[in-house]
Structure formats: C-alpha cells, structure tokens
Fold each of these.
Amino acid sequence: GGDPEQEYFADGISEDIITNLSLWRTFPVISRNSSFTFRGKSHNLKQVAIELGARYIVEGSVRKGGNRVRITAQLIDAEEDHHLWSEKWDRTLEDIFDVQDEVSEAIARRVSPSVTGHEQVRLIRKRPKNLSAWEEYLQGLNCYYNESKHTDYEDPGLTQARQHWEKAIELDPTLSDAYANLSILGSSELVQRITKDPEKTLDAILADGRRAETLNPENPLALLGIAKCYFFRGDHSTALDYAQRAVQFNPSFALSFYQQGLVQVHIGEYQHGESSILKAFELSPADPELMYFHGLLYFACLGQEKYEEALVAIDKALLRHPDVGHHLGFRAAVLGHL
C-alpha cells in the first residue's frame, strides 16, 4: 500500500476484472466507483456486502515487480460467510490478460452456474496490443479518479489523465478505451468550465467517442461519451439512443443509467427517468457522485408530482453537500407544492 507504482497497476487490474465480469451480462456487478471506496482498508465483509447490496465479494491483491506479477483472488459468499474459491497466480506481465480472463471466468461460473457456452453470452473485449500503452492508460485512470478533482476552472488530475491517454494512443492507436475515456474527460472539462472553447471541446468529445466506437462498436464508454456530446448539444433523441446502447453493452455501469435517466427527465419521460436513476443507485450505492444521483431523482419525482419523494431526494443531496446553492433553490421550489 502507498506505493503509487503498485497502486495504479492494482487499481487498473481491479477495474479490468470488474469490466470483464460486467460483460457476462447475466448478473449485476457493483460499479467501480462504489467498490473502490473500500479498497486498501480492512473491513467487515458482511457489512461491505450490506452497504453495496451485494451477496458475493471478490477480494484480492496485486503485486508487480519488474516483469513479474503476483495476483491473489478469492470469492466470498458474504451472506453465508464462507469462501467459495481462491487462487494465486505468479506470471509475467505478458500473461496479465490471460490471468484477468481466468479470474473473471472462475468467478462468473461460481456466481452464476447457468453461465455456459460463455462465448455466446459474454461480450469479448479486445486486448491491448502494446503493454506500455496499456500501462499509460492505467496511469491515466489513476489520475482521472484522483479524489482532489471536481473544482471549477482548474483540475490537474484531468490534465495528467489526458497526457497519459494521449501517450497511450501514440503507443497504440487501436486502444479504444483510451479514446473513449478522452471523450468522457472532455465532458468533465466542459462541466467544470476548464475549457476555453466549449464548441471545440464538444467536437473533440464526439471525435474521440466516434474513434473509440469505430475501434470497438460495443464499447459502452465510447457510446456514453457520444451520448454526452449529443445531450450537451440538445439532440436528446440521439443522446438517448446512445445511452440506451451503452446500457445494453454493459448493464452494470451506473453512469450509463445516470446518463439515460438524465436524458429521459429532460424529455419529460419522468417515470422512465426515475427507473434509470434508481438502477444507478443500485449499481453504485456508495458512489462519490451520489449528490448528482439524488439531484436527478428530485427532478424525476417533481415531474411526476411526487413532491414528498422529491423533497427527500433533494434533502439527501444537501446532506452530502450543504453548500450547493441551486439545491437550496430546488428545495424551496418543491416546498411550494407541499
């Protein structure tokens, strides 16, 4: 713990395994934003399972030394409080993608015994061709999810993430996930008012999303990036189409459900919007961005004239961040109906 070199690599492996598990699409997987809030700490697994609404917990460790990687993984049935499976690997870096596949396949077969003929069930991820590019990509993820982000006008984490992902693309121009994350990052630059030229940023969000989609038409992150661009441009029907496709290709990614709900609320489909955002809560119950989830639920309830529920939602948003002025305004608005 504490070694940045080990941390970005271990986080990257964990995220890849979460994504691999999601691609079976036969059982829900808690999103990385929630599961990562428990990483590196000692926890009562039964309590973690309750907080995440999960029956099974995957626990493990990753150590990288030179060209060797040592991975341990164990699957625990938190409800019954017993180990279902554990395994250790000591391999070279070149074998890392085989190990990730072995881990996710072993878990999937124990969690969902109906997983057979998995080639038909699971979406296949293209493996990166260049290990150095992949490591640059992982370092970019580490910077992007840096907890000091989310300030207006300035964000060193975003700047560093962009540098790593651009370097990854330089090393491997076929790395779909690097383009997809650049697309998502562009929307952060827009929302956090970092960009000096919003139109140019929107063009880049769409271009990066499209490039990622061309390289992998089933990449949910690419589809999410494109959905965000169309949403910002006010083309809600196209935005909804892309958000729905993102959900289809990874039904365990909370942010795709959030984006789908956001568009649905904007076009007046409040009931569908509420269902989407409730699914996002279910998939990422400890998400650092829960304030936004509650804010969107407020509008979905308000649109259906469910004023008491709207008040509960906005109160929960304010509980997390009491100083957000417009949320106080939203609260005042709903109180006018009660």
Amino acid sequence: MKYSAVIGCGYWGPNFIRVLSQQKFVPLKAICDCDETKLNRLSGKFTGLNYFNDYKEILNDDSITAVVVSTPVKTHYKIVKELLLHHKHVLCEKPFTYTSEEAKELIEIAKKNNLVLMVGHTFLYNTSIQFIYDWIKNTAFGNVLYVHFTRTGLGPVRSDVNVLWDLASHDISIILSLVNSKPVSVIAFGENYLQKGIDDVVFLILQYNENLIVKMHVSWLDPCKIRTMTIVGDKQMVVFDDVSLNEKVRIYDKGVDYQPRTGEFGEFQLSLRDGGISIPFIKPNEPLKQEVEHFLDCILNNKKTLTDGLNGLEVVKILEAAQKSLDNGNIKVQL
C-alpha cells in the first residue's frame, strides 16, 4: 500500500492535510511539523495518523511514497532534495525554491530517479482560470494587448519572505500559462512599511517582445481583499474576480475598431465598440483538491504534471529578476 505525508502545518498545510485525508488510493499516514502545538491541535481533528517533529521519520518510512512540502520557502530546497534522494514523489508548495539554481538541481534529481516533482501553483487548477485560458485560445478574443493583476488585502503578514515572493508567484504562474511567450524584462517597485527590509507593497511590470505589458500589484497593507485579473484583447476583454461568489468571470464584447474616413483613401478613424457583457456559468471546484488528486494520479499512472518543476523554475526566474530590481533601485532586469 502506498501512503502520503505532509511536512509543514502552518497557514496552508492544514488544507493539504484535509484534502489528503479524503484520498483512498494513497491515504494520508503522517504529519510533520517542528511546532508541537500545531501537531496537538491537528491530532484532535485527524485521528489514526502518525505525528512527527522530525521529517526524517518520513524519509525512513518506505511505505510513504508521496509527500507534500508546505514549509517556508527557504527550507524547500533542503527538504525536497532529501525526499527525492529517498525516492519520494513531491508536491512542493509555491514558490518552488528561493533560487533558480536550487530549482534546477531538484529537477535533475527528480528526472534521474523517475520521480514526480510538482509545484503547488493552485490557481492553474481553478476552473475559472481554465475557462479563461480556453476562451482566449479558442474564440475570437483576438490578440492579448495587456494584462493587469491586483492581489491585495490586510495581511496575513509574513516574516520569512516579502510580499513579492508570497503573492506575486500566483499571478506569474497564471500569466505564464495564459501567454505562449515568456517576458524579456522585469521592473519592480516596492516599499516596506510594516517590517524593516521586508517589502509589503510591490508593483511589478513584465514586458514582452510582442508589445505585451503585464502589471501586477501585490500588498499585505490594503483595506480591501482584491483578487482580480483583467485581460484586454483587441476584440474582447475578460475580467476574473476570485472574490466574487457568483460572477467570477465577465466577458466584455468591447474594443476599438478602425473605420475608413470619408475623405482621402487610406485614412482611418478609431471607433469605440461598446458591446454587451456576458457572465458564463462555470462549475465551481476546489482547486487544491483538484491539484492534490492530479498529483496522486500522476504518481499512480505515470503521467506528466501540469505544474512540474520546470514550471516552478520559470516562476522562480521571474521572482529572482524582480527581487534584483527591488534591491538595485528599481532597475530594469533582462530575463
């Protein structure tokens, strides 16, 4: 029998534990965290499991083949590397690693040992994001001109990483899946108001060769919880609002058309097209549940993951470049 385990019981870890505890084919066997208080709290909710303070207990259990790592990002490399070397399949919470060199090494170890290495870019398993992806690719949406993301709220404030690494990784993973090409440069502006040396507000701009511009605003210091993405095309526009209960996706049949002038041949004037708004029905899902089930399915059936180590590496490369921009006076960094 194959079993699973979770390392890390902080903010997101209990959600992984809940979902894995519902899985039948690779049942949850063990939970690990260095904080005894967290383990005691969880032991009252999830009975019949092994609770460890040291993840090496999981390394040495040959029956555990699938492990979720939900620890602070700067610990990912060490823990994931040891798991892979002990022939465990790994789902690592985002961001994958703190450097691209660490990510590359982990990818090579997983490949050498024929192991599933997956990164938890949960929004790519969201049915609304998947709908938008299909809509843009398969309809008369036109060319994507620019995209802007807003991901703000009042906390939770972290001390292990800044808001760039905490929140922007979501939106970077989304844009990499929506656009076929990769950005060529990045520039970031940020400020730390709450903790010295840890930016809690960041504005990020990605530029592409195709004249595409992507802007992101992430913040722990904002009165409103906002989770929106606006995609502007030359024929249609789409808005995703993850906070909305019933209207997560709106499609706007709006744009600007070129109309011939009545004067000389070859002259054109701009005509604003203010069409209707459609709100498609999209069956809601729990993205984390779909992500975990996909992870286990890839292990059991030897499939390629949607968000593999290479996907995680591309996100880390952009985060690294953005951090370099922040650390060097908001310079433009080439990718």
